[in-house]
Each structure stands twice: as C-alpha cells, then as structure tokens.
Amino acid sequence: MLKDLLLKNRSYRGYDETRAVTRKELIDLVEHARLTPSSVNKQALKYYLACEREETDRIQPLTAWAKALKKEVPYKGHCPRAFIVICQDTAISPALDAYLKDVGIVAQTMLLRAAELGLGGCMIGSFQKEALQQVLKLREQLRPLLVLAIGKPDETIVLENVNEQGDTTYYRDAQDVHHVPKRSVRELVINGEDS
Predict the structure, then answer these.
(1) Which segments within 24-167 are labelled E, that is strand?
(2) E strand or H helix at 105, and its extent?
(3) Residue 110 CB: number of other CB atoms within 10 A?
(4) Mind listing the pLDDT tens digit for each residue in 143-179?
C-alpha cells in the first residue's frame, strides 16, 4: 500500500483547474503532518494555506518550476488550485537550518496523504521568499522554507531506469509525457550485491 502511494506521489507540474481543493482538505494534510516526528519536539513549523483563486494567483508567479525543462510549467490553465507554504516560526527557534529535515518529513507526509485523497503536488524550493512573505502578509517571525503546490494531477509521469551514461535529468517527450530516470537499488546500496 505504501509503495502504491509512493508511485502516485510524483512531482506534478500540471493540474486540472476544474477540481477545486478545499480548505478542509488542506487542514487534513496539516493534521497528518502534525503527527510526524519533530527535531527535539520543538514543532517549529507553521503552515499558510491558500485555496482561493485570488490567493493562488498571487503565489504562482513567485514560484519557479522544473528548470530542466525547455518549456515553462505549469502551462496556462494547468496551475495548482492550492498551495501550502511551510514556514518556520523563529519565535520558537531562530535556527533555520536545524529544522530542514522536519520540512522534508512534513512535506512528504502531506504529499502522500494528498495522493491517498486523489490529489497530487510538487515541492517547490525555488521561490521568491521575501516577496512571498510580503504578499501573504506573514509576520516577520514566520520564514517561508518550502512551498507545496496541491491539486488534481493532469499529466502523465513515467519512471524509468537511469541510462548507461548515468543521466538523471528528467524530460518531456514529443507527447508531453514527463519521464523521470531513477537509479537502481544496486547503484544505491553501497555494500554487498543487491538488485
């Protein structure tokens, strides 16, 4: 069951804009994230939820997606219907680097839950932090660390083995299918002969 969710949980860069994402669904994602482990149990992360079109339209231009692709994504009319901005509350802890693993844990947890709900998402680390903080009117103590795009996926993503040259660059073919090369277990395990 976990493997099925992992296979559904891709970095989607195209969404069906006719499928709204509700605040209740976003709260559900945060509910799952809050159950995860936290460094020294500080629970220093906070979440800004955006699912109204006016808000998502302000956030979208402040993000940068899939630099390896030749075309800019998401395409017009295929943007996510929601965003979750993962922030660190520096009043709880000012050490921004100390909680980066927590960011990864909660982001992956939320995206796995989204997959379970028939949604998908993408972790966006490339965004205009200061502009986003201003647009969302976040208090100075809340520092945006990662943006999650959330919506109903509207694209095909195929996993494949890394080629003989070892190239892991993702790409789109002539039919706009998104290909993601993955290293083999044999290449990942550093001790012993595993396949």
Answers:
(1) 45-50, 82-89, 120-124, 142-151, 157-161
(2) helix 100-116
(3) 26
(4) 999 999 999 999 999 999 999 999 999 999 999 999 9
Summarised one tens digit per residue, pLDDT across range 31-50 is 999 999 999 999 999 999 99
Alpha-carbon Rg for the chain in angstroms: 18
Q: What residue spans in the chain does CATH classification 3.40.109.10 cover? A: 2-154
Question: Which residues, in sequence order, are CB contacts of 167 under 8 Å at separation 6+?
Answer: 181
The model's pTM is 0.94
Helix 100-116 with 23-33: angle, nearest 10 deg: 130
Task: Write the DSSP symbol of residue 155.
Answer: S
What backbone torsions phi and psi does residue 41 show, to the nearest 5 degrees?
A: 55, 30
CATH superfamily of 2-154: NADH Oxidase (3.40.109.10)
User: What CATH topology corresponds to 156-194?
Assistant: putative fmn-dependent nitroreductase like fold (2.20.180)
